[in-house]
Amino acid sequence: MAMSATLKAISDPMRRSILELLKKQALPAGEIAQHYPELTQATVSYHLKLLKQAGLITERREKNFIYYELNASVFEEVLTWIYGLGLGGKDDDD
Amino acid sequence: MAMSATLKAISDPMRRSILELLKKQALPAGEIAQHYPELTQATVSYHLKLLKQAGLITERREKNFIYYELNASVFEEVLTWIYGLGLGGKDDDD
DNA sequence: GAGCAATTTAGATTTATTTCTAAATAGTGG
DNA sequence: CCACTATTTAGAAATAAATCTAAATTGCTC
Protein backbone atom coordinates (compact mmCIF):
# COMPACT_ATOMS: atom_id res chain seq x y z
CA MET A 1 0.00 0.00 0.00
CA ALA A 2 1.30 3.40 -0.92
CA MET A 3 -0.12 4.96 2.19
CA SER A 4 2.13 3.03 4.56
CA ALA A 5 5.17 4.36 2.74
CA THR A 6 3.85 7.91 2.81
CA LEU A 7 2.98 7.79 6.48
CA LYS A 8 6.15 6.04 7.51
CA ALA A 9 8.10 8.67 5.60
CA ILE A 10 6.49 11.57 7.41
CA SER A 11 6.44 9.89 10.80
CA ASP A 12 10.10 10.84 11.19
CA PRO A 13 10.71 14.42 12.38
CA MET A 14 13.85 14.77 10.31
CA ARG A 15 12.02 13.92 7.13
CA ARG A 16 9.17 16.25 7.96
CA SER A 17 11.76 18.93 8.48
CA ILE A 18 13.24 18.25 5.06
CA LEU A 19 9.82 18.54 3.46
CA GLU A 20 9.27 21.86 5.19
CA LEU A 21 12.61 23.02 3.85
CA LEU A 22 11.62 22.06 0.34
CA LYS A 23 8.31 23.82 0.65
CA LYS A 24 10.03 27.15 0.13
CA GLN A 25 12.24 26.05 -2.76
CA ALA A 26 13.87 23.08 -4.41
CA LEU A 27 17.34 22.36 -3.06
CA PRO A 28 20.26 20.07 -3.85
CA ALA A 29 21.18 17.35 -1.35
CA GLY A 30 24.27 19.19 -0.20
CA GLU A 31 22.36 22.27 0.80
CA ILE A 32 19.75 20.22 2.55
CA ALA A 33 22.49 18.49 4.50
CA GLN A 34 23.94 21.83 5.57
CA HIS A 35 20.78 22.48 7.54
CA TYR A 36 21.52 19.46 9.70
CA PRO A 37 25.08 19.69 11.01
CA GLU A 38 24.32 16.88 13.43
CA LEU A 39 23.91 14.40 10.58
CA THR A 40 26.29 13.19 7.90
CA GLN A 41 25.54 13.67 4.26
CA ALA A 42 25.06 9.95 3.86
CA THR A 43 22.32 9.99 6.45
CA VAL A 44 20.54 12.85 4.74
CA SER A 45 20.87 10.94 1.48
CA TYR A 46 19.20 7.98 3.14
CA HIS A 47 16.25 10.10 4.22
CA LEU A 48 15.98 11.59 0.74
CA LYS A 49 15.84 8.10 -0.66
CA LEU A 50 12.92 7.21 1.57
CA LEU A 51 11.09 10.41 0.70
CA LYS A 52 11.72 9.74 -2.97
CA GLN A 53 10.43 6.19 -2.66
CA ALA A 54 7.31 7.51 -1.01
CA GLY A 55 6.85 9.89 -3.92
CA LEU A 56 6.98 12.89 -1.59
CA ILE A 57 9.87 14.45 -3.47
CA THR A 58 11.06 14.34 -7.06
CA GLU A 59 14.48 15.09 -8.42
CA ARG A 60 15.56 17.40 -11.21
CA ARG A 61 19.12 17.39 -12.50
CA GLU A 62 20.71 20.71 -13.27
CA LYS A 63 24.43 21.31 -13.86
CA ASN A 64 26.00 18.80 -11.54
CA PHE A 65 23.43 19.20 -8.82
CA ILE A 66 20.34 17.20 -8.15
CA TYR A 67 17.56 19.45 -7.02
CA TYR A 68 14.93 17.88 -4.85
CA GLU A 69 11.45 19.30 -4.87
CA LEU A 70 8.36 18.67 -2.86
CA ASN A 71 5.47 16.72 -4.31
CA ALA A 72 2.62 17.24 -1.91
CA SER A 73 0.07 15.66 -4.19
CA VAL A 74 0.92 12.31 -2.66
CA PHE A 75 -0.93 13.42 0.44
CA GLU A 76 -4.25 13.18 -1.35
CA GLU A 77 -4.60 9.55 -0.40
CA VAL A 78 -3.76 10.24 3.22
CA LEU A 79 -6.26 13.07 3.42
CA THR A 80 -8.94 10.90 1.90
CA TRP A 81 -8.26 8.23 4.48
CA ILE A 82 -8.32 10.65 7.40
CA TYR A 83 -11.51 12.29 6.26
CA GLY A 84 -13.00 8.88 5.68
CA LEU A 85 -12.47 8.12 9.34
CA GLY A 86 -14.93 10.81 10.20
CA LEU A 87 -12.98 13.97 10.78
CA GLY A 88 -14.80 16.75 9.03
CA GLY A 89 -17.12 14.30 7.37
CA LYS A 90 -19.76 13.99 10.04
CA ASP A 91 -22.59 14.85 7.68
CA ASP A 92 -25.59 12.88 8.72
CA ASP A 93 -24.14 9.90 10.39
CA ASP A 94 -24.70 11.15 13.86
CA MET B 1 5.97 16.32 19.45
CA ALA B 2 2.49 14.93 19.39
CA MET B 3 2.52 14.64 15.66
CA SER B 4 5.29 12.06 15.55
CA ALA B 5 3.26 9.82 17.83
CA THR B 6 0.13 10.27 15.75
CA LEU B 7 1.89 9.60 12.48
CA LYS B 8 3.90 6.70 13.79
CA ALA B 9 0.70 5.20 15.12
CA ILE B 10 -1.08 5.33 11.78
CA SER B 11 1.95 4.35 9.74
CA ASP B 12 1.28 0.73 10.70
CA PRO B 13 -1.38 -0.99 8.56
CA MET B 14 -2.61 -3.05 11.48
CA ARG B 15 -3.31 0.03 13.54
CA ARG B 16 -5.01 1.78 10.66
CA SER B 17 -7.17 -1.28 10.31
CA ILE B 18 -8.10 -1.11 13.98
CA LEU B 19 -9.09 2.53 13.61
CA GLU B 20 -11.27 1.66 10.64
CA LEU B 21 -12.91 -1.01 12.72
CA LEU B 22 -13.64 1.47 15.47
CA LYS B 23 -15.07 3.95 13.02
CA LYS B 24 -18.28 1.95 12.86
CA GLN B 25 -18.61 1.35 16.58
CA ALA B 26 -16.70 1.15 19.84
CA LEU B 27 -15.46 -2.36 20.59
CA PRO B 28 -13.77 -4.20 23.46
CA ALA B 29 -10.23 -5.48 22.98
CA GLY B 30 -11.36 -9.07 22.71
CA GLU B 31 -13.64 -8.38 19.80
CA ILE B 32 -11.01 -6.32 18.08
CA ALA B 33 -8.59 -9.19 18.44
CA GLN B 34 -11.09 -11.59 16.89
CA HIS B 35 -10.74 -9.70 13.64
CA TYR B 36 -7.07 -10.61 13.48
CA PRO B 37 -6.70 -14.37 13.94
CA GLU B 38 -3.08 -14.09 12.82
CA LEU B 39 -2.18 -12.07 15.92
CA THR B 40 -2.30 -12.89 19.60
CA GLN B 41 -4.39 -10.88 21.97
CA ALA B 42 -1.26 -9.51 23.58
CA THR B 43 -0.11 -8.10 20.29
CA VAL B 44 -3.44 -6.41 19.69
CA SER B 45 -3.22 -5.01 23.20
CA TYR B 46 0.18 -3.60 22.33
CA HIS B 47 -1.23 -1.82 19.30
CA LEU B 48 -4.13 -0.49 21.34
CA LYS B 49 -1.67 0.91 23.82
CA LEU B 50 0.15 2.82 21.09
CA LEU B 51 -3.09 4.15 19.65
CA LYS B 52 -4.16 5.19 23.14
CA GLN B 53 -0.85 6.94 23.78
CA ALA B 54 -1.27 8.81 20.51
CA GLY B 55 -4.72 9.89 21.65
CA LEU B 56 -6.33 8.24 18.66
CA ILE B 57 -8.57 6.09 20.80
CA THR B 58 -10.12 6.49 24.22
CA GLU B 59 -11.43 3.82 26.53
CA ARG B 60 -14.74 3.52 28.27
CA ARG B 61 -15.33 0.85 30.90
CA GLU B 62 -18.65 -0.94 30.88
CA LYS B 63 -19.42 -4.14 32.78
CA ASN B 64 -16.14 -5.99 32.63
CA PHE B 65 -15.27 -4.84 29.17
CA ILE B 66 -13.17 -1.94 28.08
CA TYR B 67 -14.66 -0.37 25.02
CA TYR B 68 -12.27 1.43 22.74
CA GLU B 69 -13.54 4.25 20.65
CA LEU B 70 -12.07 6.35 17.91
CA ASN B 71 -10.98 9.90 18.58
CA ALA B 72 -10.35 11.39 15.17
CA SER B 73 -9.95 14.90 16.50
CA VAL B 74 -6.27 14.19 17.02
CA PHE B 75 -5.86 14.38 13.26
CA GLU B 76 -6.41 18.12 13.30
CA GLU B 77 -2.74 18.77 13.85
CA VAL B 78 -1.74 16.42 11.07
CA LEU B 79 -4.17 18.00 8.65
CA THR B 80 -2.90 21.44 9.52
CA TRP B 81 0.64 20.33 8.85
CA ILE B 82 -0.21 18.72 5.52
CA TYR B 83 -2.18 21.71 4.33
CA GLY B 84 0.61 23.94 5.50
CA LEU B 85 2.94 22.14 3.12
CA GLY B 86 0.97 23.48 0.25
CA LEU B 87 -1.64 20.92 -0.64
CA GLY B 88 -4.80 22.85 -1.28
CA GLY B 89 -3.46 25.82 0.59
CA LYS B 90 -1.41 27.65 -2.02
CA ASP B 91 -2.88 31.03 -1.15
CA ASP B 92 -0.25 33.73 -1.24
CA ASP B 93 2.49 32.43 0.94
CA ASP B 94 5.33 32.86 -1.47
C1' DG C 1 -13.46 -12.84 49.22
C1' DA C 2 -13.11 -16.73 45.59
C1' DG C 3 -13.48 -17.64 41.03
C1' DC C 4 -13.95 -16.19 36.43
C1' DA C 5 -13.46 -13.47 32.24
C1' DA C 6 -11.15 -9.60 29.91
C1' DT C 7 -7.18 -7.38 29.37
C1' DT C 8 -2.51 -5.94 30.23
C1' DT C 9 2.39 -6.49 31.45
C1' DA C 10 7.04 -8.78 31.44
C1' DG C 11 10.67 -10.76 29.20
C1' DA C 12 12.63 -12.73 25.17
C1' DT C 13 13.16 -12.94 20.21
C1' DT C 14 12.98 -11.40 15.51
C1' DT C 15 12.88 -7.92 12.25
C1' DA C 16 13.24 -3.08 10.77
C1' DT C 17 15.21 1.62 11.16
C1' DT C 18 18.63 5.01 11.83
C1' DT C 19 23.12 6.27 11.75
C1' DC C 20 28.07 6.19 10.88
C1' DT C 21 32.58 5.56 8.12
C1' DA C 22 34.60 4.50 4.04
C1' DA C 23 34.38 3.58 -0.68
C1' DA C 24 32.05 3.99 -5.17
C1' DT C 25 29.49 6.32 -8.90
C1' DA C 26 28.21 9.92 -12.04
C1' DG C 27 28.18 14.08 -14.31
C1' DT C 28 31.05 18.57 -15.74
C1' DG C 29 34.72 21.19 -17.36
C1' DG C 30 38.97 21.62 -18.99
C1' DC D 1 40.29 11.34 -20.83
C1' DC D 2 41.40 13.34 -15.96
C1' DA D 3 40.37 15.49 -12.08
C1' DC D 4 36.83 17.64 -9.39
C1' DT D 5 32.49 18.02 -7.09
C1' DA D 6 28.02 16.19 -5.72
C1' DT D 7 25.81 12.45 -4.34
C1' DT D 8 24.92 7.64 -3.46
C1' DT D 9 25.92 2.90 -1.98
C1' DA D 10 27.86 -0.78 1.04
C1' DG D 11 28.62 -2.67 5.24
C1' DA D 12 28.51 -2.48 10.14
C1' DA D 13 26.77 -1.00 14.64
C1' DA D 14 23.20 0.89 17.68
C1' DT D 15 18.50 1.64 18.63
C1' DA D 16 13.63 0.86 18.15
C1' DA D 17 9.42 -1.84 16.86
C1' DA D 18 6.51 -5.89 16.47
C1' DT D 19 5.51 -10.23 17.98
C1' DC D 20 5.15 -14.33 20.92
C1' DT D 21 4.48 -17.11 25.38
C1' DA D 22 3.56 -17.03 29.98
C1' DA D 23 2.30 -14.71 34.03
C1' DA D 24 -0.06 -10.88 36.34
C1' DT D 25 -3.73 -7.64 36.96
C1' DT D 26 -8.33 -5.81 37.30
C1' DG D 27 -13.06 -5.76 37.96
C1' DC D 28 -17.57 -8.44 38.06
C1' DT D 29 -20.63 -11.83 40.11
C1' DC D 30 -21.91 -14.85 43.33
Helix content of chain A: 40-55%
Approximately how much beta-strand content do the residues of chain A carry? Answer: 5-15%
CATH architecture classification of chain A: Orthogonal Bundle
Question: How would you describe the shape of chain A?
Answer: elongated
Tags for this model:
94 residues; 53% helix; DNA-binding; homodimer; alpha+beta; three-stranded antiparallel sheet; Arc Repressor Mutant, subunit A
Please tell me about this protein's structure.
2 copies of one chain form a homodimer. The longest helix of chain A has 13 residues, at 41-53. Chain A has helices at residues 2-10, 13-24, 29-34, 41-53, 75-84, and strands at 27-28, 57-62, 65-70. Chain A has a single domain (2-84), classed as Arc Repressor Mutant, subunit A, CATH 1.10.10.10. The two termini of chain A are 30 Å apart. In chain A, helix 1 packs antiparallel against helix 4. Chain A is an alpha+beta fold. The A-B interface holds A 1, 3-4, 7-8, 10-13, 16, 19-20, 23, 70, 72-73, 75-76, 78-79, 81-82, 84-87 and B 1, 3-4, 7-8, 10-13, 16, 19-20, 23, 70, 72-73, 75-76, 78-79, 81-82, 84-87. Chain B binds a DNA duplex (30 and 30 nucleotides) through residues 8, 12, 14, 28-30, 33, 39-43, 45-50, 61, 63-66.
Which helices and strands occur, and which strands form pairs?
The structure is a homodimer of 94-residue chains.
Chain A: H1 2-10, H2 13-24, E1 27-28, H3 29-34, H4 41-53, E2 57-62, E3 65-70, H5 75-84
Antiparallel strand pairs in A: 1-3, 2-3
Helix pairs in contact in A: 1-4
The structure holds a DNA duplex (30 and 30 nucleotides).
